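Contributing: when you submit paired examples, paste them exactly as shown. First protein:
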Amino acid sequence: MHDDRTAALPDALEQARRFARVRSAHRTETQEDYVELIADLIAATGEARAADLAERLGVTPATVANTLTRLKRDGLVEMRPYRSIFLTDAGTAMAAQSKERHGVVVRFLLSLGVPEDVAEMDAEGLEHHLSAETLAAMRRFSGERG
């Protein structure tokens, strides 16, 4: 219901849909960051260890342990005592998709003239919140196919 007080606001259902999308992106953001970093560590060093995740994410080992438990529950990682962390097929797919989105955002920001270090930093947050339509527009703007 609109009245004079809310006339300047978007439709309530539309606004609720927008907020729901942001909450959904926040829920998957941590998962995506972790699986992308795990994939990068495995590619670079042959293994991903909880201590490396904690150091590179700037969080405590307890935070990593709790998050890994959730990632395992969600079917994204496999863990064995005294062994490295492994991605499941679903985790590998999520990592690849997240890395691709990150790259699109970085290339787009670079095409705007944003310095590389700033583009990398800004892409870390943006990559989780962009729609497929916006990513496609960024690709087109940057002269990419896809």
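Second protein:
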Amino acid sequence: MSIAEIKQNAEQKMAKSIESFKGDLQKIRTGRAHPGILDQVHVDYYGSMVPISQVANVTLLDARTISVQPWEKNLAPKIEKAIRESDLGLNPASQGELIRVPMPALTEERRRDLTKVVRNAGEDCRIAVRNLRRDANEHAKKLLKDKLITEDDERRSLDEIQKLTNAVIAEIDKLISGKEAEIMAV
């Protein structure tokens, strides 16, 4: 494995960590509605648990209301029950075949709790990135030990990996502050 391969491998894994973190951030509820909030809610569909998005159209009616239009009429009560029993704190209301899911306004205390959740998720992502940096550095040091690269090459690769790590952590910090601002906006 060459230095370029080590760096590329670390870069790809760090990018995957950021994508995973972005997915985690989308699941954290803010005052505004977005269809992705129901992605983690599963409904019983003929004996198997499937995401709501696979059995219904999930769209926005307005900034604070999600509409769920089941593809089969008999699924409406099951979908409503699954949303109500999820840990999202939502209270859906049926209107014929359409299920309206209003997003309740967040209290100040709940907003603070959510910012703590965001910070913890961000710290977990930072730890993952630092672990990837450590692994990449160990690979570079192993190449030096096996005399496949020079000390200068090793030092240069460690610097490049550190710069990459700093850039990724800066992006994580930016995502955290953006999500905190979104949560705290009334």
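If you have annotations for the second protein, write them as plain sentences, like these:
The mean pLDDT is 87.
The CA atoms of residues 41 and 51 lie 6 Å apart.
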